[in-house]
Structure formats: C-alpha cells, structure tokens
Amino acid sequence: MHAVVCIQQVPDTQELQVDFNAGAIKRGGVPLVVNPFDEFAIEEAVRLKEKHGGNVTAVTLGPPSADEALRTALAMGCDGAVHLLDEAFDGGDTWATAVALAKAVEKVGEYDVLFFGKATVDGDTGQVAPRVAALLELPMLNFVAKIDEIDFDAKAVKVERLLETGREVVRAPLPAAISVVKEINEPRYPSLLGIRKAKKVDVPTWDAAALGLDAESVGSAGSLCKMERLYQPPARAGGEIVPGEPADAAKAVAEKLIDQGII
Ligand SMILES: Cc1cc2nc3c(=O)[nH]c(=O)nc-3n(C[C@H](O)[C@H](O)[C@H](O)COP(=O)(O)OP(=O)(O)OC[C@H]3O[C@@H](n4cnc5c(N)ncnc54)[C@H](O)[C@@H]3O)c2cc1C
After folding, report:
1. N or C: less crowded end of the chain, CB within 10 Å?
2. What Cα–Cα distance (Å) separates residue 184 from each residue in 5, 40, 96, 212?
3. How far is the centre of ligand 1, averaged over its atoms, from the C-alpha of 59 (Å)?
C-alpha cells in the first residue's frame, strides 16, 4: 500500500491576519501550522499503513517554511516527504497549484490512495483535490467521513461521504483521490521519538524543472485567475437589544417584527 498525502502549511487560524494593502493573507510573523483538515488526511493514511503495511509520502507546495509542515507529517508517521519549492510557484491559483501537485504525484511513483483535506482554512476553495484528480484521471471521493472497506488486491474502496442531509456510500476503483472531513478520525499528536526521527529525514525539494514544467505554466504566470481586489465589507450597524424577561422580550420582538411588516 502506498498513500500520498497532499498537505498545505497555513497561518494558525487563531492568528489569521489579512494584509488588505498587499491583497494577501499575512504569512510572515504569524505562527504557521499544518492545515487542520490535512492532519485528518495524514492520520487516515498512517492508519491504513498501520493496518495493511506499506508507506505514506507527504507532499507540499509552499515556501521554505513549509518544510516544518512536512516534518510534522513525518513525525505523525509518514515515511517520506517531498517539498515543491521554487520561486516560479509563487502567486499560483488553485489551477497552477494543482498542475504542479499532479506532476509531483506522478513523479513520486505508483500509489493506491491520494489523500487531501476537504479545504484549507485560508484559501478555502476546496478546488485543489478535484483539480489534481481530474489531471491524473482519478476517481474523486470528496468529503469522506469514513472508509468502510478498502481492498488493495482487488483495487477497490467503499467510503461514506458527508452530505448536509446525511451520508452517501460510494464505491470506486483504486487508485483514487480522497478528500477528508474532520469526522473521519482523531489525529494523533506527534510523539517525541517521531519528532526526533522526522528531523533526520532527507526531504527532497523539487522545482518546476524537476517536474518537467516550464516557469510559464506554474505560479502566477500559469494561473487562470487573477485577484482583482481584496477588501473588508463595511461593518454592519449594531442591532437593538430588547431588555426584559425572555418571554416578555420575545413578545416585544415579535410585535416589533409585525409592526415593521417583517412577519
Ligand atoms: C490569483 C491568486 C494568487 C494567489 N497567490 C498566492 C500567493 O502568492 N501565496 C499563497 O500562499 N497563496 C496564493 N494564492 C492562494 C493559492 O492559490 C491557494 O493557497 C492554493 O491554490 C490552494 O488553494 P486553497 O487554499 O483554496 O486549497 P483547497 O482547494 O481548499 O485545498 C484542498 C486540499 O488540497 C491540498 N492542498 C492545497 N494546497 C496545497 C499545497 N500548496 N500543497 C499541497 N497540498 C495542497 C490540501 O490537502 C488541502 O486540504 C493565490 C490565489 C489566487 C487565486
């Protein structure tokens, strides 16, 4: 069994700051973490390895600091990691990011499952996983809350997808791309031994040329979307607080809504 997990390093949501002048989420001077949904993806891949044997490779595209995210993945139980690092990748949209990731996954070699988080907490588009799956012509199972069955010999997987109204059970052949939601597991904390071992792992860095891509097809040059404007909508005016006991206040609110023709 070989699972590949795509992870992104993101600013800690508690410390998220937006630089409206630069039109970007601040990355310098704020704590950076593994995207929380990607921790569930790492955990699921490592659990598959523990149950069925094999190995797990983590892949990230990001600045030099993203090495830390890969070390966390290694400390959680991944066996290898690859860092896509090149100034040519800067400013990429979800398309350009997916093009580079898809090439990297092909270069990593044969795999059974390609894991993703359902979305990142900063960009939050949820587009990267389906784009990579489409480029690699893989079945895309997204919002997966449970892997019911997986058979690496028969090359088949059955999962439960989390919908707003319930769960959908889906079968697909392997290799498949799976994006996970937080209901799937409880990610482990890296052990001290794991952290020590992770520091010693040799993590290769691949640039665009190593992926067989020219600089024009990645990063801002290869992006299909250009950000026009990043702004904060004006704060809404505060509402009215109706004082009194809950039953009286509720009655007063209802009367006000009736007076204003809202209900
Ligand atoms: C015009 C434009 C310019 C941009 N410029 C920048 C910029 O300069 N710097 C910057 O940091 N961002 C930039 N972004 C945002 C960047 O496109 C996204 O961070 C990136 O494409 C991932 O999209 P997302 O965050 O919506 O991920 P989603 O699609 O929500 O992520 C889903 C899953 O895909 C995987 N994944 C996502 N990104 C990566 C990754 N990089 N490596 C490995 N796995 C990943 C993870 O498993 C993740 O959980 C830009 C976006 C646009 C549109």
Report:
1. C
2. 15, 7, 29, 35
3. 13
Q: Is residue 83 a part of any domain in this protein? A: yes
Q: Which of the four pLDDT bands, split at 50, 70 and 90, describes residue 16? A: confident
Q: Count the domains in the chain.
A: 1
Going from the Cα of 154 to the center of ligand 1, the distance in angstroms, rounded, reads 34
d(CA 176, CA 250): 52
Evaluate: CB of 39 within 6 angstroms of ligand 1.
no
Residue 71's domain comprises 2-217
pLDDT value of residue 234: 86
* 3-22 mean pLDDT: 86
Q: Which of 6, 8, 19, 135 to mutate to test the pocket of ligand 1 (most atoms within 8 A of CB)?
A: 8
**108 CA distance to ligand 1 centroid (A)?**
20
Beta strand residue intervals within 85-139, DSSP E: 113-117
Residue 111 CA to residue 73 CA, distance in Å, equals: 18
Ligand 1 centroid from CA 57, angstroms: 19
Q: What average pLDDT is seen over the chain? A: 94
- Determine if ligand 1 sits within 6 Å of the CB of residue 136: no
The answer to the question of residue 259 being in a domain is: no
Ligand 1: does its nearest atom lie under 6 Å from the Cβ of 229? no
Q: What is the CATH number of the domain that holds 67?
A: 3.40.50.620
Per residue in 207-235, pLDDT (tens digit) is 999 999 999 999 999 999 988 888 888 88
